[in-house]
Specification:
Elements lengths: L18 H10 L7 H13 L4 E5 L2 H11 L7 E5 L4 H9 L3 E5 L10 H7 L4 E4 L11 H11 L2 E5 L7 E2 L2 E2 L6 E5 L12 E5 L2 H10 L23 H11 L2 H19 L5 E3 L6 E2 L5 E5 L7 H10 L5 E2 L8 H5 L9 H9 E4 L7 H15 L1
Parallel strand pairs: 2-3, 2-4, 4-5, 5-8
Antiparallel strand pairs: 1-9, 6-7, 6-11, 8-9, 10-12, 12-14, 13-14
Helix pairs in contact: 1-8, 2-8, 3-4, 3-7, 9-13
The protein binds pyridoxal-5'-phosphate.
The site of pyridoxal-5'-phosphate (PLP) has 13 residues, from helix 3.
Length: 373
């Protein structure tokens, strides 16, 4: 490998164990949203999360949308979420007629700050949406206690954290509902895809209805509720079944990559790497890092210097309170979340894909040392 070879930030690993399954879809003609792989994928993935039910949907964003809708909250209900996240979370809340309320995140786990959640609870608060960030779980122990005390629902966004744990309990199966994405860069991928897992049979039933145009069982084409077509296909589910069978290997690889980077970069005062709290299992979806204050440039400059030597990176999220489209809706206009702003300005993630080699990790680490040296 030469110094100019390009190292992509991720490449999905699709094992050849998928081929007989996809081939079965093609030869049998079961290519749309019915077929045995859908139910098999739902069962297997729900089991991975320690949940009873899985409802497969078209992507992680629609998973969040049907999950919030399934709560059937009165219009104007408030849902608390971290400012530091993807816009999918805010969209799901707004589209259900609810009001997103932000809290900042923690500087080390990058997950929502539970102390701030308590401070934002009002008589209109009905739910909290923790986001398990970059593979690290939010502190669900404290959040569950808070939710119990105030009678709040919990919808977990576990899109980046397949298999992450809080004191041995898998994320997604802890709250009322847990939402996952199977986009190409996620730990289990179906290309595009998503799932909501739950231990509540009533929610599972509603989720199934909402993903399928809310057809009624008693009289097809009679509707008493608005649903959507958010179905996953059997072809995608075939990929999912093959991937979920290898999820532990994928997680081991992610943890191996993170450990290698830590070994090579962990001593640098210029960099803050992601943590793993003693109560948590971080699955290190991607290896994020944040420039310390003593570095005289920001993540955008860091990224362009890495790109110049053939190393691909991605920036961190931009805060929900920093989104013009949400300001236009009258949301978050004068709000400030300093930890989020700092992560957005100084954070990025480096190559962490399933096909990454030790030699590539060495080259990325050497380049980082040189740039920050
Ligand atoms: C990827 C992701 C989503 C959205 O998933 P899509 O499948 O891309 O719609 C939601 N939340 C988080 C935290 C994500 O990383």
């Amino acid at each position: 490998m030469s110094d100019t070879d390009f190292i992509p930030v991720f490449e999905p690993l699709i094992g050849d164990n998928v081929l007989p399954l996809v081939s079965e879809c093609v030869t049998s003609g079961w290519v749309s949203s019915e077929g045995r792989f859908i139910t098999e994928f739902e069962k297997k993935f729900a089991a991975v999360c320690g949940a009873e039910h899985g409802v497969a949907v078209s992507n992680g964003t629609t998973a969040l949308q049907v999950a919030v809708s399934a709560l059937r909250l009165p219009a104007g209900s408030e849902i608390i979420l971290p400012s530091y996240t993807i816009i999918s979370c805010a969209i799901a809340i707004i589209e259900a007629g609810c009001k997103p309320v932000l809290v900042d995140c923690e500087p080390d786990t990058w997950c929502l700050d539970i102390d701030q959640v308590e401070a934002k609870i009002t008589p209109l608060t009905r739910a909290v949406m923790p986001v398990h960030m970059f593979g690290h779980p939010a502190d669900m122990r404290r959040l569950e206690a808070l939710a119990r005390k105030h009678g709040l629902h919990i919808i977990e966004d576990a899109a980046e954290s397949h298999g992450a744990e809080v004191e041995g309990r898998r994320v997604g199966g802890i709250g009322d509902m847990g939402c996952f994405s199977f986009y190409a860069n996620k730990i289990v991928t179906t290309g595009e895809g998503g799932m909501v897992v739950t231990n509540n049979a009533e929610f599972a039933e509603r989720l199934r209805s909402l993903r399928n145009l809310a057809f009624r069982r008693d009289r097809r084409f009679l509707h008493t509720e608005i649903g959507h077509n958010y179905r996953l296909t059997n072809l995608q589910a075939a990929l999912g079944v093959a991937q979920v069978d290898r999820i532990e290997q994928h997680i081991e690889k992610k943890r191996w990559i993170a450990a290698k980077y830590r070994k090579r970069l962990g001593d640098m005062p210029q960099l803050i790497l992601h943590v793993e709290k003693p109560w948590a299992r971080n699955v290190y979806w991607m290896c994020g890092m944040v420039l310390a204050d003593n570095v005289p440039f920001n993540a955008a400059e860091f990224a362009s210097r890495l790109r110049a030597v053939g190393i691909d990176t991605r920036p961190f999220f931009l805060g929900m309170h920093q989104q013009p489209v949400l300001h236009d809706m009258g949301l978050f206009k004068d709000e400030r979340y300093p930890v989020t702003e700092r992560l957005a300005e100084r954070g990025l993630y480096v190559p962490s894909g399933m096909k990454l080699t030790e030699a590539q990790i060495d080259r990325v680490s050497d380049a980082i040392r040189k740039i920050l040296g």
